[in-house]
UniProtKB/TrEMBL annotation:
Family statement: Belongs to the inositol 1,4,5-trisphosphate 5-phosphatase type II family.
GO cellular component terms given for this protein: cytosol; early endosome membrane; phagocytic vesicle membrane
GO molecular function annotation: inositol-1,4,5-trisphosphate 5-phosphatase activity; phosphatidylinositol-4,5-bisphosphate 5-phosphatase activity
Domain (Rho-GAP) ranges: 666-838
Stored PANTHER family: INOSITOL 5-PHOSPHATASE (PTHR11200), TYPE II INOSITOL 1,4,5-TRISPHOSPHATE 5-PHOSPHATASE (PTHR11200:SF300)
Principal location listed in the UniProt entry: membrane
CDD domains the record matches: INPP5c_INPP5B (cd09093), RhoGAP_OCRL1 (cd04380)
Biological processes, Gene Ontology terms: phosphatidylinositol dephosphorylation; signal transduction
Pfam family, one: INPP5B_PH
Keyword Zinc belongs to the record: no
Chain positions covered by the region annotation Disordered: 72-131
Protein's recorded name: phosphoinositide 5-phosphatase
Length: 838
């Protein structure tokens, strides 16, 4: 993870004075792995601090610069001005580094040349703060040597290009270096181990060396992924799990004993976890490390399904490793395809230079994709599948594999390669054995767990399962690769750089840049709620290198309205080159209400600015089809006709109508008690889905949501044909889109205060406007009906309270996101009404 200037704030300035020391320390009682986040101790006469810095080139550079300015450091001029170091680094976007006063934790007194064993927690408890007094500080010279050992050579172009630059000249240099990369790099093979294991919510019960290191030479890089790390409700709704540390330690102990490894990164989304390690000697050549997650569960966000990824630069090669857990069940292959596409489109990595657009998965030289992809074997009955496995006729069986079929039609993983499957399916086994599933469901065996790759200079050396591990109902899978990585030749790099600089000197006073645009007017017709529309145009550059950027218009905070996005929004063009820009229009809960009311329209002007050049103006227009999604509850109650059958002026008036209460004494003619759209969805579920397993937990299909939305907005409910999961998700999306939640913002804090008292909670509900009361009571009655069928649908009060608590009871607009305590109180509030009907 790279820290940029935007991430850091200063709470305190610590002068680099004569008594100043800064050294890396090793936390006692923890697994020590060289290359993990760096623990640093800072000491002065008045202050002693311990804090964490992220592994990567920025930390190495920071430590180097601090050592350089420390008193007594070699080469430091006595006349050099004094320096200061800012402490208490805060990184709000990706989690603040921990900070503790020295003495509150115990630390080891030296660096170890070996991977340290796991410590017995009881031994740590016996240590006292007094033991810290005996810690031997390294001398300033030793600190300087230690920091200098992390110096980045000029030949490390990955580092050079990651530094934030300013000005057109530097941008041109970086771009030309990328163009001429073959002139100063050569290909060197490195051994990669890629492993995936669905652990079915279990804790480690056996060593992992048979999977991670048995019978192979020590890999240079380990990419280890897990799925279903924790199946508890707490992990699903609150994202905390002790299983992360358990499996992290198990992996660290299972790495190849013939090498020392650095942990580069760990990323987890609920039960999906990915670990990246490299050999100690390669750690200095890893840079630009970023990790991201994408949830594809219910409402497109929940992390029970989805993907996590780590991208990094190894020497001069960009590598992205993705671990995914896609939708389950044999018939849900379309949902798996959709999950894959969502991960690809939504997984974006910030670049160190904020002037560059985010990187997607596809923008990497090498992509390694592992995980429980959940594709099954279809068209064969269970016994036929088992017989083919018994005969080891994997080639015949593979012909019926869904992933093979979907890849053949280019529905998913286009351009990816998978090795030959020469091992038996890895799912589903009775836990603790090699016996196929004997449960009531008797799942057919399937190759759920897979490893695929995409890129050049990649050779797969092995692809196998590991039957000896019996902790889970899945078997772990591994694949070993030789991957050709671009390594910089320092001398050739320096010559190439000199040539580029000389050529730039000749064109320093070049003409003003000029571009041509293939299109300047864009009309988006019949825009619908949560249905993406994309139009594109091409920028063709003339003979002068230029930087372009969409800029804000006067008195506006963004270059475009919230429902619009330009991708990329800024960039650089070499002479006589082109770039395609996509304008993406997407209306969601944030923007729908004002489009419904007419307060906003599909109209905007974009200003494309050229550095040292002129501005170009692009016109965006279109029409939005009003929707019940994003409309207030009371507005829908006064719409007896489908929203698309009403005149726009009527929709505008009803949407802008203020929320009425009983005390206002204001009543329009013949309102409905609750929105008809809500009734239609709830009634559909009551008639068809009260016994549906995993209701409100498994997502539906996007195409079916669009169909449901159109049926509700046109009133053609008789044509509604969708899965129960799609209707359930549409109901949740409807509740989420309400501009004023079912339990009004004004009562939010009152609800939290009385979350343990049913009588007081009922009193709060009685103060809601009538329409909101009706909707709340109607939903609670429906959910209680579902709970009566819990033996079939496997729902319980806690699951429903967690899901609906965050939708019905929302933090007032403009406030920060609720913390864990608030989420639990909201859950408790809804829980009261699920367990009490009077």
């Amino acid at each position: 993870m790279a820290i940029t200037g935007d991430d850091v704030s200063l709470d305190q300035i610590v002068p680099v004075s004569r008594d100043f020391t800064l050294e890396e320390v090793s936390p006692d009682g923890e697994l020590y792995i060289l290359g993990s986040d760096v623990t640093v101790q800072l000491d002065t006469a008045e202050l002693s601090l311990i804090f964490l810095l992220p592994f990567g080139s920025h930390t190495r550079m920071f430590l180097q610069e601090v050592a350089r300015v420390c008193p007594g450091a070699p080469g430091r001029s006595p006349s050099r001005p004094s320096h200061s170091v800012g402490t208490r680094l805060q990184v709000p976007r990706r989690g603040s580094p921990e900070l503790a006063e020295a003495g509150s934790s115990d630390f080891d007194d030296s660096w170890s040349d070996k991977r340290r064993p796991l410590m017995d927690p009881s031994s740590c408890a016996q240590d006292t703060p007094d033991s810290l007094l005996t810690r031997q500080n390294k001398s300033k010279c030793e600190i300087t040597d230690m920091v200098r050992s992390s110096t980045i050579m000029v030949s490390d172009k990955a580092h050079i290009l990651s530094m934030q630059k300013f000005g057109l000249r530097d941008t041109i240099v970086k771009s030309r270096l990328v163009q001429k990369e073959e002139d100063y790099t050569y290909i060197q093979n490195f051994r990669f181990f890629v492993g995936t294991y669905n652990v079915n919510g279990q804790s480690p019960k056996e060593g992992l060396r048979p999977w991670l290191s048995h019978g192979i030479p020590a890999p240079d890089v380990y990419c280890v992924g897990f799925q279903e790390l924790d199946l508890s409700k707490e992990a699903f709704f609150f994202h905390d799990t002790p299983k992360e540390e358990e499996w992290f330690k198990a992996v660290s102990e299972g790495l190849h004993p013939d090498a020392k490894y650095a942990k580069v990164k760990l990323v987890r989304l609920v039960g999906i976890m990915l670990l990246l390690y490299v050999k100690q000697e390669h750690a200095a050549h890893i840079s630009e490390v970023e990790a991201e997650t994408v949830g594809t569960g219910i409402m497109g966000r929940m992390g029970n399904k989805g993907g996590v990824a780590i991208r990094f630069q190894f020497h001069n090669t960009n590598i992205c490793v993705v671990n995914s857990h896609l939708a389950a069940h044999t018939e849900e292959y379309e949902r798996r395809n959709q999950d894959y596409k969502d991960i690809c489109s939504r997984m974006q990595f910030c670049q160190i230079d904020p002037g560059l657009p985010p990187l997607t998965i596809s923008k990497h030289d090498v992509i390694l994709w592992l995980g429980d992809l959940n594709y099954r074997i279809e068209e064969l009955d269970v016994e036929t599948v088992k017989n083919l496995i018994e005969e080891k006729d994997f080639q015949t069986l593979y012909a019926y594999d869904q992933l093979k079929t979907q890849m053949a039609t280019k529905a998913v993983f286009e351009g990816f390669i998978e090795g030959e499957l020469t091992f038996q399916p890895t799912y589903k086994y009775d836990t603790g054995s090699d016996d196929w599933d004997t449960s009531e469901k008797c799942r057919a065996p399937a190759w759920c767990d897979r490893v695929l790759w995409k890129g050049k200079n990649i050779t797969q050396l092995s692809y196998q399962s590991h039957m000896g591990l019996k902790t889970s109902d899945h078997k772990p899978v591994s694949s070993v690769f030789d991957i050709g990585v671009k390594v910089v030749n320092e001398e050739r790099y320096r010559k190439t750089l000199e040539e580029i600089v000389r050529s730039l000197d000749k064109m320093e006073n070049a003409n003003i840049p000029s571009v041509s645009l293939s299109k300047r007017e864009f009309c988006f017709q019949n825009v619908k709620y949560m249905q993406l529309q994309v139009q594109s145009f091409t920028i063709h550059n003339g003979q002068v290198p230029c930087q372009f950027e969409f800029i804000n218009k006067p008195d506006e905070k963004s270059y475009c309205k919230q429902w619009l996005n330009a991708n990329p929004s800024r960039g650089f063009l070499l002479p006589d080159s082109d770039i395609e820009i996509e304008l993406e229009l997407f209306v969601n809960k944030t923007t729908a209400t004002k489009l419904n009311s007419g307060e906003d329209k599909i109209e905007d002007i974009l200003v494309l600015h050229l550095d040292r050049g002129k501005d170009y103006f692009l016109s965006v227009s279109g029409n939005y089809l009003p929707s019940c999604f994003g409309s207030p509850i009371h507005t829908l109650c006064y719409m007896r006709e489908p929203i698309l059958d009403l005149p726009l002026e009527t929709i505008r008036e009803l949407t802008l109508m203020p929320l009425q209460t009983e005390d206002d004494g204001v009543q329009l003619e013949n309102p409905l008690g609750i929105p008809k759209e809500l009734c239609l969805m709830v009634d559909y579920l009551y008639q068809n889905a009260v016994q549906q397993e995993d209701l409100f937990q498994q997502p539906g299909l996007r195409s079916e949501f669009e169909h449901i939305r159109d049926c509700l907005d046109t009133g053609m409910i008789e044509s509604l044909s969708a899965s129960n999961h799609s209707v359930a998700e549409a109901l949740l999306l409807f509740l989420e889109s309400l501009p004023e939640p079912v339990i009004c913002y004004s009562t939010y804090h009152n609800c939290l205060e009385c979350s343990g008292n049913y009588t007081a909670s009922k009193q709060v509900i009685s103060t809601l406007p009538t329409f909101h009361q009706n909707v709340f009571n109607y939903l609670m009655a429906f959910l209680r009906e579902l709970l009566k069928k819990s033996a079939k649908n496997h729902l319980d009060e806690n699951i429903l309270a967690s899901i609906f608590g965050s939708l019905l009871l929302r933090n007032p607009a403009g406030h920060q996101k609720p913390d864990m305590a608030e989420k639990k109180k909201a859950q408790e509030f809804i829980h009261l009404f699920l367990c009490n009907s009077s």
